[in-house]
Design a protein that fits this description.
single chain, 331 residues, alpha+beta, six-stranded antiparallel beta barrel, 6 helices, 20 strands
Amino acid sequence: ARVAPALVNISVQPAGSGLRAAMQGASGSGFVVDPSGLVLTNCHVVRDAAARGGTVTVTLSDGVTRLRGVVEHSDAISDIAVVRVNHHAALPAAELGSSSDLRPGEFVVALGAPLGLTNSVSFGIVSAIERTRSELGLHDSLGARNTTAYIQTDASINSGNSGGPLLDVHGRVIGVNTMKAMGMDGIAFAVPIDEVKRVVRQLTAHGRVLRPYLGLKFIELSEPVAEELNARAAEKESRGLFGGGHVARVPARGLYVMHVTPGSPAQRAGFRIGDTIVGMRAGSPAAEVVSTKQMVDGLSEHVGGQVELEVSRDGEKANSWLEVTVETMQT
């Protein structure tokens, strides 16, 4: 109940008039995060308004008060948008929690306006955390790797719930409801609130999300992946395809470099195909690197600066530290 007053319904009417414009209208949910009138929602809810000058109408939780909304910032890759409304009085704002300690089995509540039915509530549990886009069968088509790891829940999230808050048992926002599995009940996904906070910080500071670029393509290592790579290398070695040289084993953890882009920051720093990135440091104690998300999140805080990456390399007894400049990916 403490979050319900902060819930809003968002409707978008594309520019133009007539039946076609009316049929292209979109609606979704959102929630106030600042009493001055700052609203969070999904980018896909307000996409037409942001790109084509459509009209955004924000209806407050009383179901009567309608305010004109302006899309201040939006990021299609993370699917997060910031909408500003003006009101004569301070608006009730939701309390943002943290998604870092979320565990499967925890109770959650989803708020929104499915099918335009405002102030709707559904509940369920966290079914899984850190669901990647590849696990969901989604492909990146916007020129940048999307490392969002979604919260999976069985709380009912339908058309119109998009952009609404996912709450923990204390009524704090721990995610933004984003999508459901097509044709399936009880399988829905939300963007973790910690990721949302990071995106909003960058949108506010830079007007866009600064995504890091090194010029590397790599895969996450695990014991099964490392065993397969090592087996392939051993087979090639036995056939003399390495000129009689010894091939070092790939470690079971880290990021295995498959490609280095010519002329990229990574090539200038001395990275080679076959390197395994196992650590990172940038003015702080070194941290182990075991996942793509961990790598990208760490680099995102240092775009335009330099970081050191710890590399395990074939034929070398000790790991090396390579200093690389983190450039901005143009999207």
